[in-house]
Every structure is written in C-alpha cells, then in structure tokens.
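This section describes the prediction task in plain terms. A model, or a person checking by hand, is given the sequence of a single protein chain and must write out its three-dimensional structure as a string of tokens. No templates, partner chains or ligands are provided. The sample shown here is typical of the held-out split.
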Amino acid sequence: MRIPAFGFVALVCLVACGDHVCTLDMRAAIALEIRDSLSNHPAAHRSSVILEGVGVYDSMFYDMSLNGGDTLAISQLLSPANSQGQPGTYTIRVRHAGYQLWQRHDVEVPGGSCGVGRSPVMITVRLQPLP
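The expected answer:
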C-alpha cells in the first residue's frame, strides 16, 4: 500500500504534534485594572497607557464614551499591547489628567509555546491624585 506524500506528512504531524494548535487570535499580554487610589473607583476612562520593551512600543487611549459604556461599571482595561506574541520584560506607564504619572518597570510577560501565555499578566494600577 502506497501513502501519498501529503498523507504521510499529516500522519507524522498527528503522531508528533499531538493536539497542540497555535491560533492567530490576538491575546492581551497585560491586563490593567485602573483605579483611583483614594476612592477605589474605576479610572480607566480617558487613561493613556504606554508599554515599552525591547523592540516593542505600544500605546492606547481608553475613552469609555466612544464605546458607549458606563465609566463606573467598567474598571478593567485590556491592552492589545504585545499582540505579536513577544514574551519579555516591559515598562508600563499610565497617564490620566488630574493624577500623577504611574509607572512600573520590569513587568515580566511569560512566554508559551505559541507566544505570550494564555492568561494576561494582571496589574492593578492605583492612581494618585495630584495635590
């Protein structure tokens, strides 16, 4: 019995690859929960987020009014930063009018077999109001 070449490749992949499949879906590498440090109210609305790492620079401005959402109901900001799937060490900066600059260095994004891990790195940002 002769097996066509493509059948042989498929058979080898089934045996060697198992059921592990990498998809092309974009996953957030980092999830930020942005809050006012005094009131603990959500403060993601109109926040600017910058993520920097080796060979990566990503930024976003989060405006709830553009999404038709309620500012007080949504407290989590998911950044598509690092959607290329690059594990590594990053610096995160959050700017918001009326608050001091928040930043964290050496944020480690672990890698997986398909790029970044399945779950984003969760960080709670507590913004300090300006004096």
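For orientation: The helical segments are 5-17, 64-67.
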